[in-house]
Amino acid sequence: MKIKENDELLLNGNYNIPAENILLTSTTDQLTNRREHTQRANVFRVAGLFAGIGGLEEGFRQAGHKSSMLCEFDSAAQKVLQAQFIGTEITTDVRAIASLPDCDVLTAGFPCQDLSQVGQRKGLSGPNSGLIEHVFRLLERQKRTPRWVVLENVPFMLTLNGGHAIRAITSTLEEMGYAWAYRTVNTQAFGLPQRRRRVILIASQSDDPRPPLLATDVEPALTQTRGVHACGFYWTEGNTGLGWAVDALPPLKGGSALHIPSPPAIWFPRRRLIAMPTIEDAERLQGFVAGWTNISDDPAEARKRWRMVGNAVSVPVAKWLADRLTAPHPKFSPRQNEIQPLPTTGGWPSAAWSYKGQRSKAQVSDWPIALPRAHLASFLKRDVVPLSKKATSGFLSRLVKSKLKYEEAFRLDLIHHVENAQ
Q: What is the DSSP string of 149-204?
C-alpha cells in the first residue's frame, strides 16, 4: 500500500525499527499507534548507582529513557541530581540499599580512586572502588534482573595489579550468568575536544552485548600536528608528565598531582597566552549544558564543581550507548580466526567480550564513531582565565628541571606569560 505524503515514517531512526519489520499502512492513525507502541517498548527504566552528577543517566535521558532511582554519596552531587532530575528518587548510600527498583538498565560508574593511575592503586580491595561489590549484591537479590548492566571506569584498571580488577569483575558477572563486552572509548570521538578515555562495560543475561558496543569502529580523527592550534596540558604536573593534548584538553579530573581539583591549562600560541577554561566550558566539555552544577551562589562551592565535573561520565558517550542498546543489530558472528583468547596473566586489552562460553579480545579502536568536532579554541564560549604568575612560574620551574620533551616555543611563551601576568 502507498503511504500518504504527509505520513512521517522514520526507518532505522528515532524508532529503531528495521525496515523489513514495518507493516506499511494507509492511515495516519495506524502509523501513529505503531510509533507510540514502539516508543513505549524502547523506553528503559534506569537505576543509577554512584551517579555523580548524572552523566550516564543524562545521556540515557537524552535518548528517551527515564531514571527511576539515583544513588550518590557526595552531598554536593546529590544537590545537582535533585535539581536536574526532579521527581527522581535520590538515595545516598549504596551500602544501605536493600533492593533495586524494577529497572531495565542499571548504571554504575563506580569509584575510580583505587583504580586510577594517579590514585591509591589499591584495586578492588580499596575502600572506594571496592564498593562495586554492592552492585553484584543488589543484582543477586533482584527477582527481575535488569536487561542491561552498564559499568564505567578508568582504563588503568585493565592493567593495574596484572589486570586483577577486570578479571574479578568479569568472572563475577559470568558466575551470575551474564554475557559481557567492554570497550575503551574516547570522548573526542563524540564531538568534544577533550581527550578522555574510559572503559564502558555492558552485561546482559538475555542479550548479546557485542553488537551494541563493538560492531562499529572508525579511524581516529585526531589532529596530528600542532600548527597554530591551542594545546591543553596539566599545569599541576611538569615533573614526569604533561598530559599534552593538541587541539584538545587532557582529561578533566577530580584531583591533581597537587591534590587539588583544578582545570587543565591551555596554551594559545597565536596569543602567547596561558589560560584555563571556565567551569561552564568544562561542563560543556563533558557534554552538559553550561551551569549544570551551579547549585549555589557561594564562591567556595566553585572548587566542588570542578571535582564533580572532573569525575563525571561524558554525556554524549552515554547517549550513544543508550541509542545502541535500543537499535536493531545484525547477528554478531566473529570468524573463528578472529577469536583471540584473553591472557591468563598480566593486563587485559582495551576491548574484549565473553559470550556463550567464549572469551576474546576485540579488535576495535577507542573511536566507535567520529562526530564533527570543533577546534578547542572555537569550542570555548566563555572568556578564559589567565593562569596566575605563581602557578605558571611553578610549572615552568618543574618543566625545565625535568627530562620531558617540549617545544622551545612553549617554553618561551611560558616565560612571556610570567613576565606579563598580573
A: EEEEE-GGGGTGGGGHHHHHHHHHHHHTT-EEEEEEEEGGGGT-SB--EEEEEEEE
Is 216 exposed, middle or buried (CB count within 10 Å of its CB: 0-12, 13-18, 19+)? middle
pLDDT bracket for residue 119 (50, 70, 90):
low
Let me know if 71 is a catalytic residue. no
Identified catalytic residue from 71, 103, 112, 231: 112
Sheet-wide strand order for 385-386:
245-246, 231-233, 265-268, 273-276, 385-386
Q: What was the pLDDT predicted at 272?
A: 96
User: 360: which strand partners?
Assistant: 353
- Residues 6 or more apart whose Cβ sits within 8 Å of residue 316: 59, 187, 190, 191, 192, 287, 371
Q: Are 145 and 139 in contact (CB under 8 A)?
A: yes
Computed over every residue of the chain, the mean pLDDT equals: 86
The pLDDT score that the predictor gives to residue 5 is 30
DSSP 249: B
| Angle, helix 55-62 to helix 315-326, in steps of 10 degrees | 50
Give the residue-averaged pLDDT of 64-76.
96
Domains of the chain and CATH, by start: 45-221+313-361 (3.40.50.150), 231-286+374-420 (no CATH)
C-alpha cell at 109: 560508574
Task: Give me the count of residues in the chain.
Answer: 422
What's the confidence (pLDDT) of residue 42? Answer: 83
Confidence of residue 281 (pLDDT cuts 50, 70, 90): very high
**Res. 234: pLDDT tops 90:** yes
Q: Which helix (H) or strand (E) holds 275?
A: strand 273-276
Which of 115, 151, 148 minimizes the C-alpha distance to 130?
Answer: 115
